[in-house]
Design goal:
Radius of gyration: 35 Å
Distance between the termini: 85 Å
Strand order of the largest sheet: 1-2-3-4
Largest sheet: 4 strands, antiparallel
Oligomer: single chain
Number of helices: 4
Number of strands: 4
Order of helices and strands: HHHHEEEE
Shape: elongated
């Protein structure tokens, strides 16, 4: 019985004709023969993407790194400066919090024109950062419990 059903299905499929038309490419961009009504939409989309690319700092940085050979040296310079600042800040933190449980109650450090002053008051550490122009930033943090 199953063979009869399969044979009938195969016969029906074999006799069915597939109508297919020729595939025709129609351009979208009016510059290349597309509809002139697409022009304003395509132009506004392109300008929007261009604006987003130009105002996105990461995209601009990537574009600059692709177009300039000097950026490798600049990146290395920034990495070295960051590493030195990190190491200097770690030294300041070690002096503020103390090493081997020997914390200082107050102190002052000079780092590239910045003056870092700290003092302990009760359960917190007060840190004042003074830049070369005299501007100050104050930070208060709780004393870490060991």
């Amino acid at each position: 019985m199953r063979k009869v059903i399969w044979a009938a299905a195969a016969a029906l499929l074999g006799t069915a004709s597939a109508d297919a038309g020729q595939l025709v490419y129609t351009p979208v961009n009016p510059t290349f023969g597309g509809s002139p009504f697409n022009g304003a939409y395509l132009l506004s989309t392109a300008q929007s993407n261009n604006f987003n690319f130009q105002t996105n700092p990461k995209a601009a940085q990537e574009l600059n790194s692709l177009t300039s050979q000097e950026n490798t040296a600049q990146e290395l310079r920034q990495a070295l400066i960051s590493a030195l600042i990190s190491q200097a800040s770690q030294a300041v933190i070690d002096n503020i919090l103390g090493t081997n449980g020997q914390a200082q109650d107050s102190g002052t450090f000079d780092l590239a024109g910045e003056t870092v002053t700290f003092s302990r008051a009760g359960g917190q550490i007060n840190i004042t950062l003074t830049d070369p122009t005299g501007g100050q930033t104050q930070i208060s943090i709780p004393v870490p419990q060991v």
